[in-house]
Amino acid sequence: MGAQKSVHAGKAKIDFNVDFTHKLCAALMLHPFRYSDSPLSLIIGSLCIKHPNLFGKSEKLDVLCDKGLSDSSVLIAYRSQWPQGSAQQSYVIQHTISPEIAVHGLPLENFSRSGSGGVNLCRFSAGLDLNEPEREAANSNLSSKTSVKFEHVRPVNDDGRSISRDLHGFPVTCSGRCYDNLAVLKHEFRFAKADDRSVARYNGQMEYGVHLLPKWLGFARFKFVASKGVRLGPAFLLTSLTGGYIGGDIAPYQAFAIGGLGSVRGYGEGAVGSGVSCLVANSELTFPLNETFEGAIFLDYGTEMGSALHVPGNPALRHGKPGTGVGLGYGLRFKSRIGHLQVDYAINAFQQKTVYFGFNSISA
After folding, report:
1. What is the pLDDT of residue 7?
2. Cβ of 41: how many Cβ atoms within 10 Å?
3. 155-207 pLDDT tens trace
4. Spatial separation of the C-alpha atoms in residues 178 and 161, rounded to whole Å
5. Can you name the residues that pair with 183 across neighbouring β-strands?
6. Could you tell me which residues are beta bridge partners of residue 78?
């Protein structure tokens, strides 16, 4: 149960979205970070303010505020086009608070769920993004983005107090202090090609942590996602491969986490393991049931390739995570004018069953 409202103020648009559904599903979710008896702690909502032409030259201003039960986010972005129109530059400031479940979470119920490990992350970042325009060819397009940002990461416990070690006394930062500072240079490219029978997508990310000052993190990180979809009569087969590696001076929260929706279904978030490298393969076959419903069967596999011991503090090994996981199952897809509903029923290698629900709204 919730409420949604859009208000136009001149050329600006303000979207309000408030959700009170916590009462219906509280038993299935984590305890809220810094729990409060206040009724406001039960509200899930978002506020979005957009201005399409701030100074009369197509400059865009976006302000987004999101509040969940255990996390919150505030983002301010100012976007403008270069005079030649060759690229779009964005100045972005963001502050987030969220539980760090993927790496420090505790596996529960045969690894099908992840519980809080008492570590939460407060992140503040400010930087510049440069978006190159898409270059289109026959049935394909290529785009890229380069960004430079400063990031300040401060781990806190469930009471909101700064910490430098987890509940077992192992470090949660790289610097050894109650915070980490990072200067990050990132480049990302995306390539897509499609025709009547197939679609292919490739995404690559390269990040470099610049060691500007003592105890600032210096690292190199690479990640790729390759997917291929083929139509088989009325059915559609989609396969994808995700991999990555990070090296240098890193904190535990920077490790690649495996498990959960979008990774290996049947496991909780990060319940398969975490490491400085990873490899995840997904295959899904969807087939129409009628005009609005589709059925799906899927198989997921993920591994940290024996790299968990290289993560500072060895959080995955200390929590007994297997390091390799297989999940399979079936699902239902429902498409409507307001959005797409996805329901997946998955079973992991420990015969534990999990149901996932997802909904993607379609904005006007």
Report:
1. 62
2. 14
3. 999 998 999 999 999 999 999 999 999 999 999 999 999 988 999 999 999 99
4. 10
5. 150
6. 61, 91
Rounded to an integer, the average pLDDT of 84-100 is 88
* Three-class secondary structure of residue 118 per DSSP: coil
Per-residue CA distances from 354 to 212, 263, 346 (Å) = 45, 14, 5
Q: Which residue has the tokens 């609005």?
A: 292
- Cα dihedral angle (192, 194, 200, 206), rounded to 10 degrees? 0
The runs of H, that is alpha helices, within the chain are 22-25, 101-104, 315-318
Number of neighbouring beta carbons within 10 Å of residue 321 = 29
Both tokens of 231, joined, read 């139509």
Cβ-count burial of 42 within 10 angstroms (0-12 exposed, 13-18 middle, 19+ buried)? Answer: middle
Phi, psi of 76 (to 5 degrees): -125, 120
- pTM of the full predicted structure? 0.86
Close Cβ partners of 95 (under 8 Å, ≥ 6 residues apart): 73, 74, 122, 123, 124, 125
Residue type, 274: S
Residue with tokens 């060691």: 211
The string of DSSP codes covering 277-344 is EEEEEEEEEEEESSSSEEEEEEEEEEE-TT-GGGSTT-HHHHTT--SEEEEEEEEEEEE-SSEEEEEE
Alpha carbon distance 348, 352 (integer Å)? 6
Q: What are phi and psi of 169, to 5 degrees?
A: 85, 10
φ, ψ (nearest 5 deg) of residue 27: -70, -15
d(CA 76, CA 203): 26
Spatial CA neighbour of 331 closest among 353, 298, 300, 359? 298
Residues whose CB falls within 8 Å of the CB of residue 122, separated by 6 or more in sequence, listed in order: 95, 96, 97, 153, 154, 155, 156
> Is the sign of the CA dihedral 230, 261, 3, 100 positive or negative?
negative
- The pLDDT tens digits of the residues spanning 282-316 come to 999 999 999 889 999 999 999 999 999 999 999 99
